Each structure stands twice: as structure tokens, then as C-alpha cells.
Amino acid sequence: MTTHGRHLCVLVHGMAGTQDDWATWMESLQRRCPHWTLRPLECLRDHVRPIIGKGLDALATMASEEILQALNEEDQLQQDCLEPLILHCVGHSMGGLILRAGLHRVFEEMPTIRAGVFLTLSTPHLGVNAGWRAPEALWRNLSCLTAVLSPQCPQLAVQDHPTGEQESPFLVALADPAGPHIAALARFQRRLCITVSHGDFLIPAASGIIWANRRWKRVQLPEAAAVGWGFEDHCEERCCDGYRSDSSSFSEVSSQASRQSSPQRIDRSNSRSSRTSHRRERGAVWTKSSDGTSRFPKQILEGLDSLSWERLAVRLQFKGATVHVFLIAKAAEQGELEHIYSRECVDCLADLFVGCDGAGGGRPPMPLAPCWKRTLDVKACSREECLERWVVATEEGIGVVMFYPFATEIEATFHFNSLATTSRVLFDPERNERQRYGANIGAFSTIRKLFASPLTNLASSRGMWMLVTEEGIGNVKFYSYDAEEQAREAFASFGATSRILFDPQHVEVQRGGWNRPAHSTIVATFRREVGGC
To answer: What is the C-alpha separation between 276 and 298, in angstroms, rounded?
Structure first.
């Protein structure tokens, strides 16, 4: 692993976060880059509270001061080192915007600092406004109502009013191609933006990945999977060109702007009047993403797209997950299985972040997409296949007991807790009962009886005639015979007992007995224990 240069990596948390949010990322980066200095910012903790927190401009000033302090400390610790000091930045959610707003001051005061990799995770670069196709998130469009308490939420929704020298809303000024903030971003060797493609209640996917001309939809899990995560799509090209050419299909432009020609590249001159006129023109144009879930001023997208970005969308299907913190593996807001999957994702993203040389340099290939990296398969099996595994046993109908094996206690417990009112029992690999729950209390004895009964050596009965009976509710028994005549004689001898006769190919031959509903129990048990039928 290459270690050229000294590396300082700054990590900035988002709204209502703390430096502890970065515990998983710190651990992952320390394994890969032990020579790096990792610095999660501490100064923002008391000022990023929802609704009453400080404005993004004030937070950016605080962040830049702590980054400068960290850079000076690093210089003093390694005064004799002639290698350059390289700054890397990671921001989660609002932390990515705070970084973008504060970095220009850092580079102005320490112009010799080299910029390495800039990474944002679930950061609303285009703002948080929801489109009409995301009605459940339209509450974000009311952020302006909190302006009397703090400018923070209105700034995130591009609903703040310009004040002082700022002649545009905060996020619009932040994306000005001729401004100092884009110039600061341009100094980085690589820029990455990563978000979850669906399900984030706080930010639109198009905003988190700066990719507005793609329709982000919920993807289906494999047939047997209950939950899973993977990668949805990636792009390393500029995404604004195609967006401009199709803007008429989803732009919301004032009548005056609609009569104008398509937006031209912004004049990069230093003329104050030129910049002001362009800002006024941009302020009149709002648009939405192709999937209709995000609304934003068009000039924000165009300004950010003046730079190259490595974009990556993570897919996540996990009922009850806290999607917004999945990319940082914030254990305090996650269940056990969710946190395991989240840590796996962080490790993949850390590999992408540190680059091919382990120092942020080079551009490693993007992960294969679309794909599922990990899923939890839930499949009913025979008791023989459940040996030495964690098992969730359920009663799904009178006497119909199903067995679901899992490799770990965490996976088994997750499935056990996801079954709502279904009667079920959790068994450990030693076949000891650990938990039970469900509306039908009487089902527990049936489940225990079937799970604890001696295992039938069904493997030795292959190629034989089989008589399967139900002798008591859910008490299914197997009898095997070498010859058809013996099997039919046994079938006739059971009188009123519900039973089914199967031939050596496991094809049903004959049914009998007074309790006809028991036949479905027999068939289900036969399929589970033997297969076929």
C-alpha cells in the first residue's frame, strides 16, 4: 500500500449527529490506511439540532476553523517531514453541504494544502424539496415555516431569502460555477457522491447522487429473500447534458423564462452586475427530477455538473431500516442485522474511497451494478436440514408446522421478530427452545411436539411405498413398505384414520379417512420432509 504524503481525513456528521456517528468508518479506514490521521469534527454537535440549529453558513465557518486547526496541528507534529499534506473529506447528509461551504476558506488560508478525495454520503446537494410523486415527503416543502427559529431548514429546502452580500439562496450560491465554493471542490483529485436509491425519508435520491435524469424505483428482492442490500447503479459521466436536452418534459419555468432560449453557460467574468443578473435569471427557474420525487433550482444541478463526479447508488430492501444512516452504519439507530449489512456496505465504500493505491489516488472500478451483495433467504426446510442450525418453527394452519433454518442467532431472531402474530418458536442449534410468541397459544405444543419428535430416517425409504398418516392434530407419521401389496393392506387397516398412500416416485396414489382437512397437513409435511409429491 502506497503511503506517499501525509494524509488528514476530516469527517463531518449531519443534522442531529455527533462525532460518534463515524465509529464504523473510523474503524474501516484505520484498517486500510493506518498512516492517515482521522479527524471527525467535534464543534458542530450542539449546533446541528433540527429546526433550532444554526444556519449552514455559520456551521461552515465553525467547521473551517476546526479543519484549519487540525491542519496546523498536523504540520506541527510533522515539522521535519517534507512530504505534502493531503486533505480528504467525508460528509454525511448536511455535513457534506457544510464541507462544501467551508472548504474555500481552508484553501484560501492554507493554499499549499493538497486536496485528495471528497466524498458525500446521503447529502442533499440539490436540496430536500419533494416532488408530487413523493407525497409522503411533501412535509419537507414546508421548511420555510421554521425560518423564525433557524435558517437551517429553509436553506436545505432552498427557501431562504438572500441577505447581505448573498444575492441568491444559500444552495444556489454554493453551486455557482464562477464562485469560490465550486473552485474549492475542483481542487480535489476525486469527487464521489453516494446515496441510497430508494426509501430515504429525509432526502430525494436524485439530490443525494446529483443524478436527476434517472427514474429511481424500488427494486424487488430475489424470490426467497426477506431483506438485502447491494448496488443499484453508478455513473462517472456528467448527468446534466441529457437533462438539459429533455428539460421541457419536466421543467417548471415561469412564463417569462419559458420564452427565453435554453440556459447558456454562465459568464465567468468578475463583473458584479453580470453575476447578479444571472442569479436573478436562475432564481426564476425551478425543475424536477425525471422520477418526479425531487424539486430544485435548475442552476444548482448545472453548477455541480460543471465538475466530474463518481456517482454510486446503493440499493436497500429492509423493512423498518433507518435508511438515512445506512451508509455510515450508525449503530444507535439500527437493529443488529441491519447494522451488520450496513458495516459490510461501509467496507465496500471505504475501498472505493481510499483508491487503488490506498492513499486516495487512482480510480478503482465501480462495483458491479445492479446486484445484490447480501440477502437473507427465508426458506422452509425439512427437520433433517435444520440440524445444528438456528430454527424458527411456525404453525401456518391447523397442524401445518414449517421449519426455517438460519446460520446465526441474529438472522433467526430477525425473522422471528418479523412474523407479527404468527405462532412460532425459536430453537437454538442444540434444539433448545429460546423464545415463543404468537396469537394462538395452543399452537406451541404442536410445534414443540413435531420439532422434538425423533427424526425419521426418510433417506432409507427412497424407492419404497410410503403410507403417511395424521394420528392426532399435527402428529404426522411415516410408514414405508417394499411391496405395493403390503402398502395397500396397511392403508386399508387404518380404518377412519386420515392417510395418504404414495408410490416409490412420491406420487400420491390413494387417500382415506374421515378428517379430510388433515390431508393438506399430510401433503405439506410430506413435501417438507421428503420432497416430491
So the answer is: 17
What is the value of pTM for the model shown? 0.80
CA nearest neighbour of 209 among 132, 313, 294? 313
pLDDT at 79: 66
CA separation for the pair 456, 453 (Å, rounded)? 9
371-377 β-sheet, strand order: 37-40, 6-12, 85-92, 114-121, 190-196, 310-317, 225-235, 371-377
Residue 325 vs residues 202, 342, 346: alpha-carbon distances, Å: 10, 9, 11
Give start and end residues of each alpha helix (H) in 47-127: 56-77, 94-109
Helix (H, G, I), strand (E, B) or coil at 246: coil
Closest CA to 195 of 289, 308, 91: 91
**What is the spatial distance between Cα 475 and Cα 443, in angstroms, rounded to a whole number?**
12
- How far apart, in whole angstroms, are the C-alpha atoms of residue 274 and residue 282? 12
Q: Is 307 left (phi over 0), alpha (psi -120 to 50) or beta?
A: beta
Q: Which of 66, 51, 49 is nearest to 12 (CA)?
A: 66
Cβ proximity of 298 and 247 under 8 Å: yes
What cell numbers appear for 45 in the block?
454537535
CA distance 257 to 252: 10
Q: What is the 3-state secondary structure (H, E, C) of 173-226?
A: HHCCCCCHHHHHHHCCCEEEEEEECCCCCCCCHHHHHCCCCCCCCCCCCCCCEE
d(CA 323, CA 342): 10
**Beta bridge mates, 231:** 314, 371
User: What is the residue whose three cell numbers read 417438507?
Assistant: 528
Predicted local confidence at residue 239, as pLDDT: 64
527 phi and psi angles, rounded to 5 deg: -65, -40
Say what the pLDDT of residue 477 is. 84
In 3D, which of 290, 313, 310, 346 has the Cα closest to residue 232? 313
Amino acid symbol at 151 = P
What pLDDT score was predicted for residue 134?
Answer: 92
* For residue 370, cis peptide bond before it (omega within 30 degrees of 0): yes
* Among the listed residues 206, 190, 214, the one whose alpha carbon sits nearest the alpha carbon of residue 308: 190
Burial (Cβ within 10 Å: 0-12, 13-18, ≥19) of residue 272: exposed
Task: Decide the pairing of beta strands 476-481 and 114-121.
Answer: unpaired
Cell 443525494 -> residue:
208
pLDDT of residue 119: 98
**Which residues of the chain fall short of a pLDDT of 50?**
1-3, 242, 244-282, 284, 533
